[in-house]
Amino acid sequence: MTQRLGQYLDRVREQLGKDVVVTDPDLILPWLTDWRGRWTGRSPALLEPRETRHVSVMLALASELGQPIVTQGGNSSMVGGATPDDSGDQLILSTRRMNAIRAIDAKRRVAVAEAGTILETLHEEARAHDLRFPLTLGAKGSATIGGLASTNAGGTQVLRFGTMRGLVEGVEAVLPDGSVHDGLSGLKKDNRGFSLDQLLIGAEGTLGVITAARLKLVPLPRGRTTIWAALADLDHALDLLTRLQDGLGDRLEGFEVLPHDSLVAAMEHLGIASPIGTVSPWYALVEIAYPQAGEGREKVEALLAAALEANIIGDAVVAANESQSQALWRIRDSLSDAEKAHYGMATQHDISVPVADIPAFMAKVREAVEARWPGSQVSGYGHLGDGNIHLHVRAMERAREDWRQAEGEEIERFVHDIVIAHGGSISAEHGIGVMKRDELARLGEPARLMALRAVKVALDPAGIMNPGKLIP
Ligand code: MLT
Ligand code: ZN
């Protein structure tokens, strides 16, 4: 441990007590590797603040001494955004003990939750008030509100409700110098210059620590329909999306697609049979919610019948009850793990292009990558309604130890170039973290890079917050 680190930890203990610093290596170990197992770092201690004041003291001291801090919530970053580097010099600040839901105001439909609150816990609490926090994703059992806000997380119901940026009404956060920004008041109008809250959302912990967030809640739907539809290709998927949007408006909450090879991986991983009798190149998983019970099912069935008639879908299964609906979503939520277990090494891309361009984009990538790297396989699943596909290039028989390091990185650049040529983004929802920092530097337009660097230097002159992530 360096002298600076020792001095820092002593002063934190002096001011806040011993129990906010954990040095037992067994307790630190689980937090040193990202959940996909791609990056492992070192950290001699975990900081465990219990309240905002603790974070304030920790950051003020860190700024004074130049001590690097990596903030971590549920450790479910897909881009190594919350893993310390291997210098042994960075300290993890875990928000997990700051997990109180400070308030749920059912009348105003708002919750104030501390950073370490687990998403699923917020879902349950909101449901107890007949309300819903309408952002969900596969990692809901571990992802925390602070991490979700810091990364502007998306998930499977962005289509109707947007990403965290649209669902957070304000944040409480500690800036690198220890000052506290309180944005929890819930003002509808506040034009005192640019929004610090929005700046911190998506900053990936590089500008400070979000300690709590004020979150929009919506009424619980009284009914829902979940559909699994078989599709010949992505053009048909877009046609179905358009028909459902036209016919259902904002009752359409989610529109996800997956290819048959992803379903095969999920069936094996979960030990289940296919939810549909037809084998098809693609499937759509569609979620429709109704404000009133018993509303709308006939309309959905009529829309599906018309889509069948027009040969847009080959077949469809409509969940008959809540447990069937959950079983369909379980398939979708398992895909990340299932793909990893079934297909092994793959380079993974989280890209977006304009929604209408997805079919042409996917065809282009498949053709170009498989021609350049014979034996690899391009596949993708995800949030078609948001123009966001998790595009995987599977190593298949090419699999070797150096797949990701050498060939994988070349493939990543190759795919990203096609994304940019389509006017897209190399990070639709997972963020930049450590994984895409160099690609952001290579491809980020000058204005974006200049602004990122300038804001970082202005707010964090000592460079203590999540060094090595996001900012090229
Ligand atoms: C998802 O949509 O399942 C997640 O963003 C994770 C992923 O598969 O990349
Ligand atoms: Zn996703």
From TrEMBL:
Pfam families listed in its UniProt record: FAD-oxidase_C, FAD_binding_4
Domain FAD-binding PCMH-type: 39-220
One GO-annotated biological process of the protein: respiratory electron transport chain
Key words of the record: FAD, Flavoprotein
GO molecular function, one term: FAD binding
Alphabetized InterPro entries for the sequence: FAD-bd_oxidored_4_C (IPR004113), FAD-bd_PCMH (IPR016166), FAD-bd_PCMH-like_sf (IPR036318), FAD-bd_PCMH_sub1 (IPR016167), FAD-bd_PCMH_sub2 (IPR016169), FAD-linked_Oxase-like_C (IPR016164), FAD-oxidored/transferase_4 (IPR051264), Oxid_FAD_bind_N (IPR006094)
Superkingdom, natural source: Bacteria
Cofactor(s) required for function per UniProt: FAD
PROSITE patterns the UniProt entry points to: FAD_PCMH
Record-stated family: Belongs to the FAD-binding oxidoreductase/transferase type 4 family.
Name used for this protein in its record: FAD/FMN-containing dehydrogenase
Upper lineage: Bacteria, Pseudomonadati, Pseudomonadota, Alphaproteobacteria, Sphingomonadales
